[in-house]
Amino acid sequence: MRLKKALPAGLAAVLLPALSQAQEAGPALSAGDTAFVATCALIVMLMMLPGLGLFYAGMARSKNVLSVLTHIFASVALIAVLWIAFGYSLSFAEGPLNALIGGTSKLFLSGVTQDSMVGTIPEYLYVLFMLMFAAITPPIIVGAFAERMKFAAVLIFMAVWLTINYVPMAHMAWGGGWVFDIGVQDFAGGNVVHLNAGMAALVCALVVGPRQGYGSTMMAPHNMTMTYTGGAMLWVGWLAFCGGCALAANGFSALVMLNTMLGGAGGALGWMAAEWLHRGRASTFGLLSGAIAGLVAITPACGFVGPAGAVAVGFLTAPVCVFAVEVVKRRFGYDDSFDVFGVHGVGAAVGGVLTVIFAAPVLGGLGYPEGRTLMTQMVPQLAIMGFSILVSLVTTWIALKIADALVGLRVDEEAEFDGLDTAEHGEVGYRLGDGTYAGAAIAAQPGSPAAAPALAPARS
Asked: Could you say which DSSP state residue 270 is in?
């Protein structure tokens, strides 16, 4: 196994997603490990569909609920096909530019058979599990430009962003690229998934621009029960998302799942406490947002900290995300529709720093690579986080510009006013008993100056 001697044996397992590609030939298949990772992959699928979809769709206005669901569903389907076509190969096969990008030997899974192994699991299963990571990361960004971006532009953006951002980032961190050799403490994708998507969300919010009426029109979530259901599914799925990265059914993967659970719990309590102090009451939306913030923060830390540290990581991260959402966003006026940057970007950045702090053995953590201390580990940690931010900013801007040049980014003003459900997809999310679109019920009342046809949604 390609394992640095500097790493303590207890930390070797956290690098399995990348190291598995370089394991010695002929490992024996483990039915237990295979069943565990397969189960995790299926649960992460539910985390995406319907978890992320419901979580975001409930936050949209009723006239855009289907567009949000469609953006996520179509993006997952597109990315799944592209991952098999070239994403997996360029992420995990060796190539001439291996420090930056993988090779082409496994395009369309060429050479992968039922007998191919990655560690103790079939390579087909590894392909599937890593597909879940690739398929859920770009759709996270949907929450930044929801309710105003063309469907065609979304698909182009997703394809380009996957190609020029996610694939090389995944290779550099997990597939044997130069970042892998740095020894960053990032267990399950704090940089590749959450910091990356969070920074991309900020760029999208700035480039695409705010929604009509932003800052003066009520844009509250239209269905909190939907958001609650999706958020709960995300929490469940996150345990599989992180736990499956161990690629083995053992005590270490159990610790990872426990830490993930506690990170979400700590985040929920931290957001609730901040909201209670700030507003005098706790909200359901705040609890959900806090749990997600804590889960984002624990993603890099779950393989390096102890259970008490996991609670602390989530609890300390959530108030920082509250500040980003309540203060920073209002101060600078960008319209990050569902606070992707404030939760994923900020949460991943704070979590990355807290990972190193709570990895200290004195705080119950598993320690650092041999020869490193808290301070010497923090240097590469911050450096790679900065690198990830820079790559995300540049590649996201390029992907948006390509989509804009091909089809334009935004729907027109009339389509945005009517809602993307009808304008882009010719459908509506809700109907009353008489077939009237629920969002148009008030506007369509006789004598109303805003009277409109049954399928033309009223302004939210």
From this structure: H
If pLDDT is split at 50, 70 and 90, which confidence band does 275 have? very high
Largest Cα–Cα distance in the chain? Answer: 78
DSSP string, 117-144: EETTEEHHHHHHHHHHHHHHHHHHTHHH
**For 137-163, what is each residue's pLDDT tens digit?**
999 999 999 999 999 999 999 999 999
The number of beta carbons lying within 10 Å of the beta carbon of residue 225 is 11
For the record, the structure tokens of 5 come out as 């001697």
Q: What is the pTM of this model?
A: 0.89
Identify the H or E element spanning 107. none
C-beta separation of 244 from 289 below 8 A: no
Rg of the chain over all Cα atoms, to the nearest angstrom: 22
pLDDT band at residue 21 under the 50/70/90 scheme: very low
Q: Is 74 exposed, middle or buried (0-12, 13-18, 19+ CB in 10 A)?
A: middle
Q: Which single residue is written with the structure tokens 């009342």?
A: 445
Q: Give the residue carrying structure tokens 């990895």.
A: 359
For residue 431, the cross-strand partners are 437
Structure tokens at 320: 């920082």
Pull the structure tokens for residue 54. 């419901």
Q: What's the chain's length in residues?
A: 460
User: For 301, how many CA atoms within 13 A lie in the half-sphere containing its CB?
Assistant: 39
